[in-house]
Amino acid sequence: MSEDYNSSDFKKLxxxxxxxxxxxxxxxxxFAIFGLFQAKDPLEVELIKAIxxxxxxxxxxxxxVYPALTILLIVLLIHVILRGVxxxxxxxxxxxxxxxxxxxxxxxxxxxxLTQKVGSFxxxxxxxxNICSTLFAIAFLMAFYFMAYMLVVGFFATTTSLVxxxxxxxxxxxxxxxxxWGLIYFSMALLVFVDFIGMGVLKKGxxxxxxxxxxxxxxxxxxxxxxxxxxxxxxxxQKRAKWLATFILPAYILGSVLVSSFKKxxxxxxxxxxxxxxxxxxxxxxxxxxxxxDELVDFAVIPSKVITTPYLPLKVPYTSFKEDAVxxxxxxxxxxxxxxxxxxxxxxxxxxxxxxxxxxxxxxxEEQKKYLKVFNNMYKIMIDSTVIExxxxxxxxxxxxxxxxxxxxxxxxxxGKHLLYVVGPRGQTAxxxxxxxxxxxxxxxxxxxxx
Length: 451
Fold this sequence. Notes:
- Keywords: Membrane, Transmembrane, Transmembrane helix.
- The chain crosses the membrane at residues 57-82, 135-157, 177-202, 214-231, 243-262.
- By secondary structure, the chain is of the alpha+beta class.
- The protein has helices spanning 8-19, 21-52, 56-96, 101-104, 108-117, 121-166, 171-197, 207-222, 229-236, 241-261, 320-329, 364-378; strands at residues 306-307, 311-317, 348-351, 354-357, 380-383, 386-388, 393-396, 402-409, 416-430, 433-448.
- The protein is built from twelve helices and ten strands.
- The strands form three sheets. The protein has a five-stranded mixed beta sheet with strand order 1-10-9-5-6. A three-stranded antiparallel beta sheet has the order 2-8-7, with no helix packed on it.
- The mean pLDDT is 78.
């Protein structure tokens, strides 16, 4: 029956379902809101792991999914509230019927105005019904919009990564290919966005549709638009709803910027700083106070602000910048082909729960020792004004994130406040050119008290 959508029986079924859809709306909204609230914290944790492990593609996916879930959550909450008002209005209508303006005994001027502006109670219920149904549909349409954006950028990242993995171009040719392909691809994407904001402006006329049609079909395949295209055009053929469907996404982006920039300032002089210094201790430098939802851990971390042991553990999370700095120090370590990122690894295979580990190669251990030697020579550790001996090794933390670790001898320190300095290469932008200079990268205050 569902395939014969022109039959009278199918239309009667749709009319019946349309009348009773509010029950399904509330049921789906309730489950969706519960699931979205449960998903927000795990997504934030996964985003932290992705940033720390330099998993750009995975981090990009989470960054795109997170605002989509936020939009869906906000719209569904508004939908549930208005549906509650609608159900309350229905109950009130059963008890008291329509609004009797004559019984209110207002002056003729107010009675005429209320009759014109407020109207009948049934009209109010009908408007609530339309708003609720529209919000429910547009909530999922917004999620599809974000999915389309994610797929557009993800397709570009996938194509460039595949070309890099195949190795058909040299490093310089790969950069040129990425630049050329990005210019062409995102120019076409800009046309699609202009058509979206203009509510189909490129589909009108005679010449423009002929030029635009191949681009429209290409991005239609990439964004899986067959899933939500009927929803879009159903909104666009309505005078009021089409503006809502088109501009709710820019409105959300603008609202997010305004909300994120509105903060409470506690002091005229004192405020939260991004990095620790001689007078400020950032929570991102101490393991015992790092919030699991912090977006980034600082360059180096120590266990706590108060140290009572004769040694001080120091951990430096791995980043691709640190590895690039190693390559600049010793060009012989720079591989011909960059193996970082997602790719197939035949050294470890998981088959039906059984793991098979293969030899890493005869030269890997010696190369790792050479890598660590260069890394140790790059950085100087100082406490107050004294250089401290150190030897970094590499390990992984509980989140399987690579990091460098060493233990510093502080048994000679006096009780009280001390400053830990890490000096080494850091990036600096000058005239739009990234340079690496030697400087104090991080300053961490701590207090040492002997047991």
